[in-house]
Amino acid sequence: MADKENEPRRNILLRIWNAFWSPTAVLSAGFLLIAGFIGGILFWGGFHWSLELTNTEEFCTSCHTMETNLGEYRETVHYNNHSGVRAICSDCHVPHEWQYKMKAKIMAVKDVYHEVLGTISTKEKYEDRRLEMATAVWKKMKASDSRECRNCHAFEYMDFTIQETRAANNHQRAIDEGMTCIDCHQGIAHDLPPGYLEEYKNVVEPMAQTDNKDLAKIRDWLVASKTE
What we know:
The protein is mainly α. It contains ten helices and no strands.
């Protein structure tokens, strides 16, 4: 009995499906191709425009909980400097490469969740979670070799002869020892929480051990391949 009652509904869905895939007698194939092409361009343009809109400083700081971040950022050299070149939120937190950018946008949904939940809605809550939030950023930047920093800063384009002696020496050391930007510049845009150095060591050490294990596996594989 139940099958007979559901049969008209299945027939309607089947007719809709067949109509969707059946060739049309009114519109030409060329028109459909052109219309599809134009529709694709409009869709892609709208999607790209919406995506770029979420990269603006106004969008990033529109939430109440970002007021603390914004105030700290405005006191840094990334906001106001002698060259007049400003790095906004997305320059540091959103990758330029498409695949990494889309992953970052998807992961950013959690920020909306915490905004609604009020996780850091007060100064006290914000300070309680400052170290946890900083640690998450450190892990991401360490794993990516400070990819977003290198969109503007790159060792190969630095002229050490016109840098301050301390900066030039530290940058040369970073090159020699394979260090990355975040190893020295943890508090470049926001205030650092108490005990940040110890926590950063806790972040880096397990990652360094993993990297060493991976390097050992690669070396073993190279040795094995040469002996075969």
